[in-house]
Amino acid sequence: MTSTFLPDKRTGPGAGAPPPAADRPTGRTRRRALHWLTAAGFQLPALVLFLGLVLLPMLFALYAAFFRWGGFGMPSDYIGGENFTRLFQDDVFLGDLWRCLVLVVLSLAFQLPFALAMAVLLNQRMRGRAVYRMLFFAPYVLSEAITGILFGMIFAPDDGFADQVLGRIGLDGLGGEWFADPSTVMATVFLVMTWKYFGFHMMLYLAGLQAVPRELTEAALIDGASAWQRFRNVTLPLLAPTLRISVFLAVIGSIQLFDLVWVTTAGGPDHHSETMAVTMFQYGFKRYQVGYASAISVVMFGISLVFALAYQRFVLRRDLEGATTTMRGDGK
Amino acid sequence: MTASQKTRAGGRTWSLHLVLVVVGAVMAVPLLYAALSGFKSTDELSRNPVGLPESWVTSNYTQILGSGDFWRLIGNSTLIAIGTTVLLVAVSALSAFSFARFAFRGREALFTLFTMGLMFPFAVAALPLFLLLRSLDLLDNPLGVILPQAAFGLPMTIIILRGFFRQIPGELEEAATLDGCSPFGFFWRVLLPMARPALGTVSVLAVVTSWNNFFLPLLVFTDAQWWTLPIGVQQFQGQYSAEYAKVFAYLVLAMVPALAFYSVAERQLVGGLTAGATKG
């Protein structure tokens, strides 16, 4: 079966407008044209905004990536694919790709399972549940820049709050230079990311858990399934669509990571926490190698696109088919 | 339930609570630490970083609250958040209405185009967007942030609103049309009032996203007159990097509006995020 992502053309059920009925020629064409114009008129403002400020800039980046260009006037020094070959020989950029992968793996291995555990915990009836939920999600509403600066100070090398606390509870060995040490900077960035974002994933899982019918887990309980078996064989499969979406968002988030890194380390020490977006910013806005920076944009775009399409094709396919059939089912 | 089962269940609940208390502490301590540190002098902060302040110094906070700079940042952030939200919600509602209630040629292609926008991070378009804004003379102009923020918010907002508009029964529209209502009349007088909860949700999302945006204002505003809160905080930290207590006070005050907004709009925010993620 092929996945089309969206319901078939014009059989979209939500449409309140009359379906294109059997053609009666008189007056039909005019009324149809009018109908189309009305529908299109409502789309016009959104379309202008989207084409002008989302699509056009992206297309322009694609164009500028083939030039040596400082960002002033129009690009004229055409150099073919040189920016791209340079990019894939650039140790910093290759490092960016590696670090992106590291963050994705860390997120999937630690952050999301932790968020899931907290969601399962807080899905039970217990005292203070609403307070914990609110507290765990609260960092999500804070600005990345503000969070970054806060943790930059908490993890100040040697005498910051984190080191002081670890020293007092006899764990001095765990403290250190944090953001300032090439070997610990990524772990520290990941720690802050988890603090800030796990609550968001937890909220997604909680919404998913709420949709799991109680009868199913109760039936499994009566059949003598243990708590783990109930989770593994009933809850988890039903939560799969939510998990897949959350993985998708975590990966996209890692690809575009900028704010948090920029305010804490600006990519340092010595590029050890640099991300693609930071490298792009450095070249585009600090060194005025705009053509080269555009090439980085294009590669980021390419990676996002390939990932999004592949994920949609191979992972989300079942969910979307489910979604479209439900949409057909309950359409009025 | 036998007594031993009860104790076992009791023991388990107890250990679960312990886990939650530990995680809760890890979440809350950075914020509490910042708030307390703001009440110390920088001198005391280096001597006594962990404990309560020996004497509660309020001057760090009052100095910031008494300076026009801080309030200008709040004003700019508010202006930009409101501008973005109004524009984004208005434009998205029109588009979502058309997607939900009209059958027209090219509809699915257009909708796919918008949903594709969901997959592309802002960072990708930042550089060319900056060049475009520069050529349109929109740098150091709040519109230079408002327009792109609205544009990048479109996919998510349209998807959420379209889903909501589809649930409104078609009979209503037929009745309105029979009463002589134009499509826009129906949209304005019937659909929008009914969609208030959904409009609230997407507005809350738009406000929070705009309020916290850092990248775009960083590119667009070189003139301090237009800086938003996140930019202002970063600048303040750069300027007073040695005076830790002051920076902590500044950070805390900068967090207050977002946390206050969250505490009143929690339901819309969480509802919007989960709806956006699962329906997108």
Question: Overview of this structure, please?
Answer:
The complex is a heterodimer of chains A (about 325) and B (about 280). With about 325 residues, chain A is mainly α. Helices cover about 65% and strands about 0% of the residues of chain A. The radius of gyration of chain A is 25 Å and the shape is flat. Chain A has helices at about 30-65, 80-85, 90-120, 130-135, 145-155, 160-170, 185-210, 215-220, 225-255, 260-265, 275-285, 290-315, 315-330, and strands spanning about 65-70, 75-80. Chain A has one domain: Orthogonal Bundle (MetI-like fold), CATH 1.10.3720.10. In chain A, helix 3 (about 90-120) runs parallel beside helix 7 (about 185-210) and helix 7 (about 185-210) crosses helix 9. A two-stranded antiparallel sheet of chain A has the order 1-2. Chain B has about 280 residues and is mainly α. Chain B has two domains: about 5-60, no CATH class; about 65-240 and about 255-280, MetI-like (MetI-like fold, Orthogonal Bundle). Chain B is about 80% helix and about 0% strand. Chain B starts with a helix and ends with a helix. The model of chain B has no long low-confidence stretch (mean pLDDT about 85). At the A-B interface, helix 1, helix 3, helix 4, helix 5 and helix 6 of A face helix 1, helix 4, helix 5, helix 6 and helix 7 of B.
